[in-house]
Amino acid sequence: MNILSLFPAVPLLMMLGLWVSRNTKQIHAVMVAGSSVLLGLAVALVFIFLGMRADGQTAEMLLTDSFMWYKPLNIEYAVGVDGISVAMILLSAIIVFTGTFASWKMKDGVKEFFMWFCLLSVGVFGFFISVDLFTMFMFYEVALIPMYLLIGVWGTGKKEYSAMKLTLMLMGGSALILIGILGIYFGSGATTMNLNEIAALHNIPVEMQRIWFPIIFIGFGVLGALFPFHTWSPDGHASAPTAVSMLHAGVLMKLGGYGCFRIAMYLLPEAAQELSWIFIILTTISVVYGAFSACVQTDLKYINAYSSVSHCGLVLFAILMMNTTAATGAVLQMLSHGLMTALFFALIGMIYGRTHTRDIRELSGLMKIMPFLSVCYVIAGLANLGLPGLSGFVAEMTIFNGAFMINDTFHRVVTIIACTSIVITAVYILRLVGKILYGTCTNPEHLKLTDATWDERLAVIVLIVAIAGLGLFPLWMSDLISESVLPVISHILN
Fold first, then answer.
1. Cα angle 379, 230, 249; round to 5
2. Reduced 3-state DSSP string for 27-75
3. Quick check: pTM over 0.85?
4. Which residues pair with 77 in a beta bridge?
5. What's the whole-number mean pLDDT along residues 109-131?
6. How far apart are CA 106 and CA 124, in angstroms?
C-alpha cells in the first residue's frame, strides 16, 4: 500500500478499535496508539519526500498512485504529495496527537466522541493527499459532517445554534465548490479529474474562468473565514469542545486556504489575475476586522476565534499576491497558525476545566496558582503577536515581505493596512495576559486549583516545541514549501 493511503486508513482502523473497546482505558489506548502511528508516519513522510527530492526526482507530485473509482465521470482515487501537502499532513498529525491528550479527562460519551473525531481526521488527511478533484471534494465533506455532532452534542454554551450555523454555512460553501469543480471538469474538456492534468491542458476559456473562479474561491473561502462569510467561525469555536476546537481551527480551516490555492488559483489562472483585487480587499478587511473584534471580546474562546479570522485572512491575502515569497509565507502561516491556535484552545480548555469560566473579567492572578499553564499561555500569546524566534514571526514577515515586493500603489497600500494587525494583535494579547495571569487573584475558590497534569503537559509541550522549532529553524520547512509553490505560481502567471 502507498504510504499516503495509510493516513486515512489509520483513523478508520482507530474507529474499528474504538468500536470494540469496552472501557475508557481501552479507548485511550486505541487513541494514543493510533495518533502516535499517524505522527510517526507524518515524520517518516517528510524524510521520504526530502530523500526523493535529494535523489533528483523533480516531478511536481511524488508518491503518486491511482485507480479508477467511477468511469462515466473519470473519477479516480488519485493520491500524491508536494511540499505543501507534506507540511499540512505533518500539521494534522501533530494536532490529532495533541488533541487526544487534551481530551483525556472527557467523561461523557467518550467512545462516540473519539469515533467522530477519527472520522474528521479521515476527511482531513484524505483531502491533503488527493489530487483528483472529486475525491478531494468527497474527503472535504467527510471532514465537515462530524463537526455538527461534535459541537452539538459535546459542546458548551449555545452549542445547537453554533453547530447548525456552522453546518449550514459550510455546506453552502460546499455546494459552490461542487458547482465549480463540475464547471472546471466540463469546461476544460478533460478526460480526467486529476487537477495536475487539467492544469496542464490550460484550455478553460477566460469567460468561463470568470464564473468559476469567484464561486470556488468563495466556496473554500467560507471555511477560510473570508469576510463577510466568517460569522460561523467565532460561534463554532466558542461552543466546540477543546480537541475539536484544536482540530477545527488548527487544521480544518486550512482546507480553505489550501483549496483556494490548489484549485481556484491553479486551475483558473487568468481569472485569478483579473479578479484578485476584489478578494484582496475582502481579505484585508478580514485581517484588520478580526484583530479589532478580538480586542473587544471578554470570552477567552471568542478572543482566539476572532484572532483566527485575522490570521486565516492573512493566508488568503498572501495567496492572492501571486508571488513565490508571499505564497510560501501563506503555507508557513497555515502551519504556524495551526500550531498556535491549537495551543491556545488547549490551554483555554485546561483553564476552563479548572475555573469553570472563560470570562476574562472573572480571572486574575493565575500565574501564582497554575504557573505551568500560565507560562505556556504567555508563550502562545507571544507567538501570536509575532515575537522573533517563534513561528508567527517567520510566517508573517514572509507574507508582508512578499506582498510589499509588488511594486504598485494598490498592493503596497493594502499591505500596510494589513500590517497594522500586528500592532492590534499585540494590544489584545498583552492586555489579556496582564489581566488574567498577573495581579492578585480575586476569587478565593481559584486559590484551591491545581496546575497541569501529565497528559496536559505532554500535549502543550509538543505544540510549544513545534512552534519554537519552526520559529528557530524555519529554512528547511521554507525550502520544502517554496520548491512546491514555485511551479504553481509559475503556472498562474504564464
1. 35
2. HHHHHHHHHHHHHHHHHHHHHHHHHHHHCCCCCCCEEEEEEEEEHHHCE
3. yes
4. 67
5. 89
6. 23
